[in-house]
Input
Amino acid sequence: MAFRFLTAGESHGEALTAVIDGVPAGLQLTEEHLNEDLGRRQRGYGRGGRMKIERDQAHISSGVRWGMTLGSPITLTIQNRDWENWKQTMAVGEPPSGTPAKAVTRPRPGHADLAGAMKYGHRDIRNVLERSSARETTARVAVAGVAKRLLGEFGITILSHVTEIGGVRIGPLEAPWEEIRARAEASEVRCADPAAESAIIEAIDQAKASGDTLGGVFEVVALNCPVGLGSYVQWDRKLDGRLARAFCSIHAIKGAEIGMGFEAARRPGSQVHDEILFDADSGFDRRSNSAGGLEGGVTNGQPVIVRAAMKPISTLRKPLQSVDMATKETVEAVVERSDVCAVPAAGVVGEAMMALVLAEAFLEKFAGDSVDEIRRNYQGYLDYLKSW
Output
């Protein structure tokens, strides 16, 4: 059974929609399971005015009965509260007044504006920016709520935390993952290092005062993944490749690394590879986790760790130079309502992409039409691993 989904909707359209296929029957699922992460995605120091308007809530309209999945496609809808202010500009039919909004013709450097307009033949950038907006990730986070529920049935949990914003990096974190999760969730910038948190907030304030934006790095960790998700036999089945693609599909993400990542290229092999241990009771283990839980494109039983680098947001309150598409004159880029920094929220989206990829790989490995069938397959595999 393949786990797959599609999202639809524009940033200021009436709603965002997602259709999910491949969810097994018998999974307990309510809207509350989806809405917690939607709320987490909206928080974070440095967010813009849009987050004060929206109160994202996912509505399930198919595929679930009496709190249990049916095995049929699941449809999710998230209403855009800001739609009330955009009914004319984003009308599906003729604008109510009959007068369309003024075309947006000043593309933003770093955004999909110009390339998207040229690709699709749009003379109004509004037709590009509405779908290319990071607002689309709201639907992905909702879909991932389903994936997290499935993974949670088998003890797999996912967390994220910010490791760097605006050049301010956290110090070493000598703490269990659950403590890091708790610290991050209590932080305005989702940072588990209190000293770095203060410096990051100051950096965001300075960027806001100067009309600028900041990017950064976040880390996503999946705990309790079994050995054997993914495969080494074909390039497109390698789980690290699939994760890199998923993370780089997030808006403004320009790089992803797994485990030690780029640092591994700077060290000799003796300081990189994780020595293998064995205990008669617990089986195989690793002395370290530089590989980030993946070897040869396959999970090895260690936590799966992915970090992603987010560039600064493209919309600046003091805009950069651009060229008007209509007149070809030198102008300042258009200014849309935006955030100063969205790295904390991007970490929640990173959790979503981790969950979506792992759920797909998990169902590939332990395929079944119902949760009970998958549980039998999974338990049989765990029993098999004990023989090693």
